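User: Fold both of these, please.

Assistant: Here is the first one.
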Amino acid sequence: MLRQAVASDIASIQHVRRSVRENRLVSTVISDDQVREAIEKTGRGWVIESRGEVVAFAIGNAKSGNIWALFVHPDHERRGYGRLLHDTMIDWLWSQGLARLWLTTEPGTRAQGFYEAAGWRLSGSTDRGESRYERSAMRIEVDDLSRPAIHALLNEHLRSMYSLSPPESVHALDLERLRRPEITFWSAWEGSLLLGCGALKELDPTHGEVKSMRTADAHRRKGIGRAILAHIVGVAGARHYERLSLETGSMEAFRPAQKLYESFGFVYCGPFGEHVEDPYSVFMTMRLPERER
């Protein structure tokens, strides 16, 4: 169970920190008072409990943007706890209006590989020889489809779709069709780095369709698709749509996308709009709650 850390967790947090085999911060004495300040004053902490025992924790500093700590007890590694804590903490820190996040970790450890896979970029090293990593805030912006990087990403998307489905079952849109007035297209960036894209097509004044969801191959598994989809759902609500629908592939390669949509509340349905039954397609829809409208 994931929950916010409280003062009564401090002893357990210290136990987990002392139990790890790598990146132990043995040169740094962290007192209980420092942990309390970190979770109550300068930031927030989270713990994961298993059978009533704290087995992992993370703490982020909302003032400096520092990932203050992220540790999983060795007996509970490789269960996705680290990624769950990481993503929860990162989402909260971005919600605090920070422009940049940073952390330090020991080089040559699994932690270093974990952070690099999660999208952190090496920015230097500290006086103590630790590696320093940074991330800039993701920005999602309406895109005019003029930049070469966008063209390359959409070509990557189309190649992928045509490699997975027969031509008559590919519903991905090319540049010309994405420029139609009923479609709004967004791109997601970190600095000058293109991360992904997505679009929203108005089918009628109460119904929208999610289109062109794509995360750049080099940035998968970093929460980018989820962020873009959340943005699209928010815009659909602001437009007072009552329903949001989509088409995606039916093959196993599309299962991660289906799971993402399911997590937002999309349910399976029949064809809508101009779509027809197709063994290579599945259709999903969601009613937008009143608060989204």
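And the second sequence with its predicted structure:
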Amino acid sequence: MRKSKVTAIILAMAMAVSLFTIPASAENFTAADALAVLKHVVGIQLLSPEQMTKYGFTDEEAVTSADALSILKTVVGTTDIADDPEPMISGGWSEFRDLTEEDLAVFEEAMADLDGVVYEPISVSTQIVAGMNYRFLCNATVVYPDAETVEKYVTVYKDLEGNVEITEIVDAE
């Protein structure tokens, strides 16, 4: 695969992951530019400057954002993500949404050793950090007869190695 195509793929990843808005007419993105965008929005440096040199990425390998949008459309099926007028801010929380199987697996792993209260997740919001924060809106019921159910936020952190931990349980606002 040509390095310019890899550069476009990296830029497309940044656009998809972050809802990062780049005008379709923008030109001359190098691999370093694309990686800088991805580092800005995800907080992870995928390749060091030394690795960039080692793998032969140069400024001559520049691509346009249209290249990246083309790849994004091929992979995701739309470029609407990249054209969002109000992109998600890196480090900001997403809107609450329905749970996916992956979200539920993270929740269940985090809650496995918790006793005394039954937490039923209703929806989730996520935050990209060095890993991922999940904020689950849950119905919580203390385990005793006729207990009242209340809404709680359960925040779970999943690190880059896949380890999960509960970081906070608070009353829903």
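The first strand starts at residue 117 and ends at 129.
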